């Protein structure tokens, strides 16, 4: 099944944003794209080949952001017990999916939870 173009564009923006954060690297454990900082995943980007619905999974500690993310169409706590730790899976192909800017804000929030303080200081330009 072909991935809707607007969902793919959003996904590409989010991926580029995530990989542009200080110290971020892309790896492919389990055959899916993840962005890591300091050897720890801060966003699961999934696969873009259409074999699985396009989406992102982020860790949100802020209760307001977490509730907002869970309110998105089709969003749910991440599987494998990650949901209990604040991880939320957000599908991008559904009507009403969040805008790329909102997704990038969440990716940054997730990065800030996981990245070491020195990289957060770099991100903040201090």
Automatic annotation (TrEMBL):
Organism: Streptomyces afghaniensis 772
Protein name: DifB protein
Source domain of life: Bacteria
Lineage, top ranks: Bacteria, Bacillati, Actinomycetota, Actinomycetes, Kitasatosporales
Any one Pfam family match given in the protein's UniProt record, by short name: YjbR
């Amino acid at each position: 099944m072909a991935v809707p173009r607007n969902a793919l564009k959003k996904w590409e923006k989010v991926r580029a944003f995530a990989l542009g954060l200080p110290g971020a690297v892309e790896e492919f454990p389990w055959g899916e794209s993840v962005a890591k900082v300091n050897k720890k995943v801060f966003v699961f980007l999934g696969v873009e080949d259409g074999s699985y619905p396009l989406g992102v999974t982020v860790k949100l500690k802020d209760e307001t952001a977490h509730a907002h993310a869970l309110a998105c169409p089709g969003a749910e706590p991440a599987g494998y017990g990650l949901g209990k730790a604040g991880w939320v899976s957000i599908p991008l192909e559904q009507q009403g999916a969040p805008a790329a800017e909102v997704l990038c804000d969440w990716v940054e929030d997730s990065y800030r939870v996981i990245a070491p303080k020195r990289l957060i200081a770099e991100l903040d330009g201090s």
